[in-house]
Design a protein that fits this description.
Blueprint (H helix, E strand, L loop, with lengths): L10 H4 L7 H19 L11 E11 L6 E8 L1 H4 L11 E8 L2 H9 L5 E3 L5 E5 H6 L2 H8 L9 E5 L3 H5 L9 H15 L9 H9 L4 E8 L20 E10 L2 E6 L1 H11 L6 E6 L2 E17 L6 E15 L8 H28 L7 H7 L11 E10 L13 E6 L2
Parallel strand pairs: 1-4, 1-5, 5-6, 6-7, 12-13
Antiparallel strand pairs: 1-2, 2-3, 7-8, 8-9, 10-11, 11-12, 13-14
Pfam families: Spore_GerAC, Spore_GerAC_N
Family: Belongs to the GerABKC lipoprotein family.
Subcellular location: Membrane
Length: 415
C-alpha cells in the first residue's frame, strides 16, 4: 500500500483529510467564476438601441451628368414608433441622402453625417429608381451578396416617381414605409396574385443567374408627397400614399420594360408562384366575379415536339364573390357555365401574357433553361408554343340563400 504513495510524502500525511477554510472556499469560488466568465459572456457584442441608426428602407439612384451614386437611408425613430408622447407627434422615420462614387462609398459617406452607427441588418425594403434600374442592377445585387450581415430576404422594388418624393413620404396606418411595402406584397400575394413574395433579392438573383427574366413590383406615389407629421391627424389616407402597381421586367443586368398590373396575376399563375387569382367573367347569368381559393399549377416542356410545346395544367377551386344574376337561383347548368367562362378567360389571359413575353423577347418563364436541360438549342425558346389545360370547380358557400348545391366540376382545354 505504501508503494502507491510518492516517496516525498509521509504515509501519515496522505491519510489526513484536506480541510477547506472559509478563505480557501472564497478563493476557489472566485477562481472558478473568473475561468468560466469569458465562456459565458453571451452579450459581449451587445449594442444599445440608442447607439444605432436602424435602417428600415434604403434606396439607390444615380446622377446621369456626374455618374455619382445617390443613396437614401430611412432610419427608424424608435420613440415615435411607440406611443406618442405628450409633447406631440414625431416623425417615425428620418431620411438621409448621401452621394458617393460607388455603392460601397455610400455607407462611408453616411457615417460622416449620421450621429449613430449605421445598422443595415433590419432592412425591410430596397427601392431602385427607374433610371438606375435601366442602367444596371447586378452591381447592387452583388454588393448585397458580399456583405457578411446581409439579408437576402429583403424585398426589392422599382420606383417610377422621383425617388426623393418616395423616400420622404410618410405612410399612414403602418408608419414604417419599408414595412408597409413589405406587407402590401404579402396581402396581395394571397388576395389576388397580382404580386408574389418571390421579389426578394435572393429570388431576383436566382432568376437572373439562370438566364430567366425577373419581375419586380413597381412602387408609385399617389398625388403629391405628404412629409409633415400632421398627416396622422387627417383621415384622408389616400393623399400622397405609396402603392404597388405593375412590374418592372429585368433581363440580363438591367430593366428592359414594364408588365401591366392586369398581366401580373396571370404571369404569376403561369410561373406557379401564386395560389390566388381574381377575375370577372361573363356567363349566362350575367357578369360574375370569381376568385380561386386553391390554384394548383403543373407544367412540363415537350421539347421533342415540332414545334416544342410547353404544357401548363391549372386546377382551380372557384369562389363566387360577386354575382348579378338574371334569375334568383343558380342551377347546376349555371355553375357549369361559370366554370367554362372562367376557363375561357384564364386561357385567353394566360396566352396573352405568354405571347407578350415572346414578342418582346422576355424569357419570363425560364424556357431557355428548360430547352437546355432537354438537349435543345436554348436560342429557340421563342418557338415554344403554349398549351393551357384548365380544370375548374365551384365551391359550395353553404349557408347562403339559394345554395349552390353540390360542387360542380368541369374540365376544358384551350387549343
Amino acid at each position: 500500500m505504501d508503494d502507491a504513495i510518492p516517496g516525498d510524502v509521509a504515509p501519515e500525511a496522505a491519510d489526513k483529510d484536506v480541510t477547506f477554510t472559509p478563505m480557501n472556499r472564497t478563493v476557489a469560488l472566485v477562481s472558478a467564476v473568473a475561468a468560466i466568465a469569458p465562456l459565458a459572456a453571451g452579450c459581449w457584442d451587445m449594442r444599445e438601441v440608442n447607439q444605432l441608426a436602424i435602417v428600415d428602407m434604403a434606396a439607390l439612384d444615380f446622377e446621369p451628368q456626374t455618374g455619382m451614386e445617390i443613396g437614401y437611408y430611412q432610419v427608424v425613430n424608435p420613440n415615435a414608433i411607440t406611443q406618442q408622447q405628450a409633447s406631440g407627434l414625431r416623425s417615425p422615420v428620418y431620411t438621409y441622402r448621401v452621394e458617393g462614387r460607388t455603392i460601397a462609398d455610400l455607407g462611408r459617406q453616411a457615417a460622416l453625417r449620421l450621429p449613430r452607427e449605421l445598422f443595415p441588418d433590419h432592412y425591410q425594403s430596397i427601392i431602385v429608381s427607374e433610371r438606375r434600374a435601366r442602367k444596371e442592377i447586378m452591381q447592387l445585387l452583388d454588393f448585397f451578396e458580399r456583405q457578411f450581415d446581409r439579408r437576402s430576404t429583403v424585398q426589392l422594388f422599382v420606383a417610377v416617381d422621383p425617388l426623393e418624393d418616395v423616400m420622404t413620404e410618410l405612410t399612414p396606418l403602418e408608419r414604417r414605409p419599408g414595412n408597409a411595402l413589405r406587407k402590401l406584397v404579402e396581402i396581395q400575394s394571397s388576395a389576388n396574385g397580382a404580386l408574389s413574395r418571390r421579389n426578394r433579392i435572393k429570388d431576383v438573383l436566382e432568376d437572373l443567374a439562370t438566364g430567366r427574366c425577373a419581375v419586380v413590383p413597381i412602387v408609385r406615389l399617389k398625388g403629391k408627397p405628404v412629409r409633415n407629421v400632421g398627416r396622422y391627424q387627417s383621415s384622408d389616407a389616400d393623399a400622397g400614399n405609396l402603392y404597388l402597381h405593375g412590374g418592372a421586367v429585368f433581363c440580363g443586368d438591367r430593366m428592359v420594360g414594364e408588365l401591366g398590373h392586369d398581366d401580373m396575376s396571370w404571369y404569376h399563375a403561369l410561373s406557379g408562384r401564386t395560389a390566388a387569382l381574381g377575375a370577372t367573367v361573363r356567363a349566362s347569368v350575367g357578369s360574375v366575379d370569381v376568385r380561386t381559393e386553391r390554384l394548383r399549377i403543373q407544367s412540363r416542356l415537350d421539347a421533342h415536339a415540332d414545334p416544342p410545346v410547353w404544357r401548363v395544367r391549372m386546377k382551380a377551386a372557384l369562389h363566387v364573390t360577386g354575382l348579378r344574376p338574371d334569375k334568383p337561383d343558380l342551377t347546376h347548368d349555371d355553375l357549369r357555365d361559370i366554370c367554362l367562362a372562367f376557363e375561357r378567360k384564364a386561357s385567353e389571359r394566360a396566352s396573352a401574357v405568354y405571347d407578350l413575353s415572346v414578342r418582346r423577347g422576355w424569357d419570363l418563364f425560364g424556357l431557355r433553361r428548360k430547352m437546355t436541360l432537354a438537349g435543345r438549342d436554348a436560342a429557340q425558346w421563342s418557338t415554344v408554343r403554349l398549351r393551357v389545360d384548365i380544370g375548374c370547380r365551384v365551391l359550395n358557400p353553404g349557408e347562403l340563400a339559394g345554395s349552390y348545391g353540390p360542387q360542380i366540376e368541369s374540365e376544358a382545354s384551350s387549343p
